[in-house]
Amino acid sequence: MQQAGTVRVGLGGRAYDILIGTGLIANAGEHIAPLLQRRKTVIVTDEHVAALHGQALMAALAKDGIAAEMITLPAGEATKRFEMLESLTEQLLALGVERKDAIIALGGGVIGDITGFAASILRRGCRFIQIPTSLLAQVDSSVGGKTAINAKAGKNLIGAFHQPVLVLADTDVLHTLPERELKAGYAEIVKYGALGDFEFFEWLEEHGTALLAGDDDLRREAVTRSVSAKARIVEEDETEGGVRALLNLGHTFGHALEAATGYSSTLLHGEGVAIGMAMAFRFSAEEGLCPGQDASRLEAHLTACGMLPDITTLAGVREAGPEGLLKLMYQDKKVEDGRLTLILARRLGDAFIAKDVEPDKVTRFLERYF
Ligand SMILES: NC(=O)c1ccc[n+]([C@@H]2O[C@H](COP(=O)([O-])OP(=O)(O)OC[C@H]3O[C@@H](n4cnc5c(N)ncnc54)[C@H](O)[C@@H]3O)[C@@H](O)[C@H]2O)c1
Ligand SMILES: O=C(O)C(=O)C[C@@H](O)[C@H](O)[C@H](O)COP(=O)(O)O
Ligand SMILES: [Zn+2]
Q1: What letter would DSSP give residue 336?
Q2: Where is the 3-dehydroquinate synthase N-terminal domain (predicted)?
């Protein structure tokens, strides 16, 4: 049975709906057919998701007369690289994807990011639909139009803003997601509370454990609240000229840790975000910007969910050391005129953009972690 709510991302000519609920993949054809110029599409997915949910989507599209081909990429962050982008775009062209077609990204944030980027450049831009299957992709990466691959120099450095034309977040599929991946997605949910909604943070303190354990109603509510918050920010600032940078809370530290650990399974993106948010709050507290008890409260919640490892135990991080991490932080896209921008906090639920952060302060802060 299909049961879904809708959040609209109001971006004028690039506006789209995010449908959140159950039975959305089983009925995908009915939502997708009206968007197609011809009843033909290509699904891009990864090997795990293809095995679990690929056939269900193919069958749902066939029910509405949509012929679909499937391209399956390797799972994991290492897929967000140039060689994969080349292979993906060549395969899309070989399958005859036309400029007016809409391709489908079925998977987590890795598939959404690389497929969205491929769509943004294929024949100078075709449309794409997000069917996010990880918690992280449902609450964050499928919405807002940031698409990218990683570069040797840093995370998501080659990409484009390219909005999807539809997002189908089917919470049924979360039941096959491994626990570690669920927790990684949960970090991005905590982010919305920590950056701008204290009441949501309190709700997560109360319901986080049950949500992670599998409660569908709580998951649906968390996805809806998260994407609603993201949609409002993206509507105000689509290409991160200002306020959208708040969605980067924890990411300057987190992306540096991901780079230091080689974009590998040593540290998932969401895990880096959890550690990075705790660091951003602790740094804010040590700078006298935020009460220490708020930093402790955030740490306590993340620790209760098993999400705050000692960073120096992560292969690659000790080798990088404070100086190495600081250097990686300077690849951040928020750097302006060679100066570091961090998302810091006044309190839980109130983050702000701090420009021109002194590197010495960050180095001394990082040294205390080692
Ligand atoms: N564009 C954005 O705004 C944005 C936002 C946040 C994160 N991201 C990016 O998203 C990526 C992380 O996304 P992710 O955490 O989804 O990682 P992912 O895409 O690697 O998916 C996580 C793992 O779960 C598997 N998986 C996905 N759905 C499943 C399901 N329903 N059942 C079983 N297994 C499933 C995948 O095969 C993979 O092994 C990072 O590259 C990050 O940079 C982008
Ligand atoms: O949508 C945004 O804006 C975000 O910053 C969301 C982040 O969770 C996401 O990881 C994003 O890809 C990071 O953006 P980047 O510009 O730092 O690469
Ligand atoms: Zn993120």
Answers
A1: B
A2: 71-183
Whether residues 346 and 223 share a domain: the answer is yes
Residue 338 Rama label (left phi>0; alpha psi -120 to 50; beta): left
254 and 134, same domain (yes or no)? no
Instruction: Find the ligand nearest to 244 CA.
Output: 2
Q: Which residues of 39-72 are buried (b: 16+ CB within 10 A; e: fewer)?
A: ebbbbbbbebbbeebbebbbebbeebebebbbbb
Same domain, 227 and 113: no
Ligand 2 contact via 144 beta carbon (within 6 Å): yes
* CATH number of the domain where residue 61 is located: 3.40.50.1970
What's the predicted TM-score (pTM) here? 0.98
Where is 93: in which H helix or E strand? helix 82-94
ipTM for the predicted complex: 0.99
Of 141, 190, 239, 249, best ligand 1 pocket probe by most atoms within 8 Å of the beta carbon: 141
Is 318 a residue of the active site? no
pLDDT of residue 369: 83
Tokens matching residue 85: 């982008």
